[in-house]
Write a structure and sequence with these properties.
Layout lengths: L11 H41 L3 E5 L2 E3 L4 E6 L1 E5 L4 E5 L2 E6 L6 E4 L4 E5 L4 E5 L2 E7 L7 E12 L9 E13 L6 E12 L6 H4 L4 E9 L10 H10 L4 E10 L2 E5 L3 E4 L5 E10 L7 H5 L7 H13 L3 E9 L2 E4 L2 E5 L16
Antiparallel strand pairs: 1-4, 2-3, 3-6, 4-5, 5-8, 6-7, 7-10, 8-9, 9-11, 10-11, 11-12, 12-13, 13-14, 14-15, 15-16, 15-17, 16-18, 17-18, 18-19, 19-20, 20-21
Length: 353
């Protein structure tokens, strides 16, 4: 009490709200720093695990920021190549996630990237937008989305030519099926320009090609392993297969479609299974190079038979396409090796298909 007998006002309660705000902000700052340190440790741990599984990893210029609400990750260069020789090399990579949702990441390659294709050599990919989104990593399958716009593709003289030179858009979506009974893979390639050196060029010409693919994946929970090959092997041994819901390719007057059928991966790393194939061509051109690209050298006899089948059907061909014993067969005719999904260790010296 003051000398005049009046009470001194108590100011402490007015300070408490400000003190609480300071404490909350300080606590949140500690939380963000802890999340940053945890991310850094997880990245180092995962890099060590992948290197132990035979991956080649080069990461330069790592920076983590994004305070207060995000975790932003930047690399001046990021290279990841698997034991099979497939991977990517990005001269700049950015990724971010909300600090309260660290399981959902959006990744951008602003300067494009170089896709390494094993023995075929690299493909340089550029575009207005090269993005990826990864979420739901605690379920099977993950939710993964890939997107590219106004894309261009180029290969050095020493590499195997790529099928396309550009595409207006490329989208891939992997997610759990709506009924949660498996996985769903959707892919769409829009207005792609076929390279003049591609085996597709005589059929497609300069017409833009559009590809639409929808697969239902069974047993996605079995897709586990330290590397791509071991994960595919585990999935295949568990009975996993890709059921073809829709495959449609159109380029000018030429079209290819598949509805139904299923494929799996054999012990040799190649596709096995069958699917009904429908092909429509503007003339009696041989259909097989359209399916298998430049990797298959077709005997003249098989090409002549295929062309005759197409002419006899009025420019259309309906036939079962079968993959078995490492071979691809059309109407019972062996037309080349089945597409390879991974290369087993015992096949390391086998010639590229």
């Amino acid at each position: 009490m003051s000398a005049s007998g009046t009470k001194t006002p108590r100011r402490v309660p007015f300070i408490l709200p400000y003190l609480a705000i300071v404490l909350v902000l300080a606590g949140y700052g500690v939380f963000w720093l802890a999340a940053r340190e945890m991310l850094q440790a997880r990245l180092a741990q995962e890099a060590d695990r992948l290197r132990g599984a035979g991956y080649k990893i080069e990461l330069a210029g790592q920076r983590i920021g994004g305070f207060p609400f995000r975790l932003r990750l930047h690399y001046d260069r990021a290279r990841l190549v698997g034991p099979s020789g497939w991977g990517f090399d990005a001269p700049g990579l950015d990724a971010q996630a909300f600090v309260y949702a660290p399981g959902h990441w959006v990744i951008v390659a602003p300067a494009g990237l170089e896709v390494e294709r094993g023995g075929d050599g690299p493909v340089q990919v550029r575009g207005q937008a090269l993005r990826a989104s990864i979420a739901g990593v605690h379920a099977a399958p993950w939710r993964v989305a890939l997107e590219g716009q106004a894309m261009t593709f180029a290969t050095p003289p020493t590499a195997h030519p790529f099928t396309f030179t550009r595409a207006d858009r490329f989208d891939v979506l992997l997610r759990p099926a709506p009924d949660r009974s498996g996985g769903q893979l959707l892919m769409r390639l829009t207005a792609a320009t076929v390279a003049p050196t591609s085996a597709l060029a005589p059929i497609v010409g300069r017409a833009p090609l559009t590809l639409d693919l929808a697969l239902r994946l069974t047993k996605p929970e079995a897709f586990k392993g330290a590397a791509w090959a071991s994960a595919v092997q585990a999935w295949s041994k568990a009975g996993g297969e890709a059921q073809i819901v829709r495959l449609q390719a159109n380029a000018g007057a030429a079209s290819l479609s598949v509805a139904g059928g299923a494929v799996r991966v054999g012990d040799d790393g190649r596709l096995a299974g069958a699917a009904p194939l429908h092909v429509a061509l503007p003339s009696g051109l041989a259909v097989l190079p359209m399916i298998f690209g430049g990797h298959v050298s077709l005997p003249v006899r098989i090409v002549a038979i295929a062309a005759a089948l197409v002419r006899g059907a009025g420019g259309a061909l309906n036939a079962p396409l079968t993959f078995k014993d490492g071979r691809a067969e059309l109407e019972g005719l062996a037309i080349g090796p089945a597409p390879r999904v991974y290369r087993p260790a015992t096949a390391a010296t086998e010639a590229r298909p």
